[in-house]
Amino acid sequence: MKLACSSKLAPGNTFEEKLASLGALGYQGIEARVMExxxxxxxxxxxxxxxSASPVEVCSVIxxxxxxxSPLDSKAALREKVKNAKRxxxxxxxxxxxxxxxxxxxxxxxxxxxDRPEPLSARDRDRELLLGLLSEVADYAEKVSAxxxxxxxxxxxxxxxxxxxxxxxxxxxVGSPRVKMVIDFxxxxxxEADIAASIEAGGDLVYHVQLxxxxxxxxxxxxxxxxxxxxxxxxxGYERYMALECRVPEQPERDLQACAAYLRSCIEETSTR
Length: 273
Fold this sequence. Notes:
Helix content is 44%, strand content 14%. By secondary structure, the protein is an alpha/beta fold. The protein has a single domain (2-272), classed as Divalent-metal-dependent TIM barrel enzymes (TIM Barrel), CATH 3.20.20.150. Strands 1-2-3-4-5-6-7-8 form an eight-stranded parallel β-barrel, surrounded by six helices. Helix 3 links the parallel strand 3 and strand 4. The longest helix is centred in the N-terminal third of the chain and has 21 residues, at 75-95. The two termini are 16 Å apart.
């Protein structure tokens, strides 16, 4: 298992500077966040050039867009989300790594304060829209040789799916080797009864991992048992990247270096668990 960090946390003003700082701080990968309006061919050319001169690799790609926040509730919305997904897959096909595909993402109103709401992926009409989106995503991912990843997101931030089991069911319904799963320890802390058991149930669908503690701070600043989760990842044969995706630290260079050391110690402990 290798360590990576979201570009939003990495010290530096340019992509080149972020690659250099992460390499110096002990990270092997970067999770590249490229805003949709900035994902121009020229920008991607410059990123590719920087990557060719760096040992740090892109482990995953996120192309945030206002389309993420709009509901997937109609054929018109489906067309817009397919268009956005294809842009993201184009970026991922050039930079590498899993490409995040998000049907909906925004704070839920009203907040589900007590019972966990039924995910929309379990409802016929909404499942039809979701599978329509992901079918086109799978076909296009195959065309451009990219891998799309779906993330179980907690009940306060999305409506479609919240647990590893729910996303695994969706992936199996799509039935494409180009559609996999990303798991995030912060979301798992909220939604999974047993993080290690849930990871093992995800098996080879787990293509990428994001790291954030129980309070969405850097790992080691909350109460998440990363050792147990990492041991489960080892048992399913996971060898890819685990990327920090959490609150920006107060002193990035100092805090990211300390976090890398903490995570390496957790990984080393998996041999005894």
